[in-house]
Amino acid sequence: MAAHTFSPPKLYSAHSSFYDRSNSTGRELLDADLSRRVLTLMQMLDMRLSSTGGRGKSDWRLELAMLYYVRNFRKVWHLVLALSLCFEPC
Predict the structure, then answer these.
(1) Is pLDDT larger for residue 27 or for residue 3?
(2) What does the DSSP assignment read for 26-90?
(3) Which of 20, 36, 81, 86 could form a disulfide with 26 if both were Cys (CB 3.0 to 4.6 A apart)?
(4) 11-64, pLDDT tens digit by residue?
(5) Which residue range is the domain that position 44 belongs to?
(6) Has residue 80 got a pLDDT over 90?
């Protein structure tokens, strides 16, 4: 019996030229799309939580994943700001 190896699904396979990994604009579009989706999910979960009086809680793993995303987004944002200040003309 042959061992099966896991291969993750190819994201955005229908638009592979649009999200080309070698193209920085494609990566930026992918990052922007991911950020939009995460922020939309956060907004939806917040609305559900407030409309159910706190009873409509989400899974702790989803909340942890969103916190992880926001933490890393913040790190990158601070790096971009620091780099932009370094290359600003005096």
Answers:
(1) 27
(2) HHHHHHHHHHHHHHHHHHHHHHHHHHTTT--PPPHHHHHHHHHHHHHHHHHHHHHHHHHHHTS--
(3) 20
(4) 444 444 444 556 677 888 988 999 999 999 999 999 999 999 988 888 999 999
(5) 18-86
(6) no
> Using an 8 Å Cβ cutoff, are 30 and 22 in contact?
no
Question: Is residue 4 a contact partner of residue 11, using CB atoms and an 8 Å limit?
Answer: no
Q: Is residue 46 part of a domain?
A: yes
| Predicted model pTM | 0.61
Assigned domain for 1 exists: no
Any domain includes 3? no
- In angstroms, the CA 62 to CA 67 distance is 9
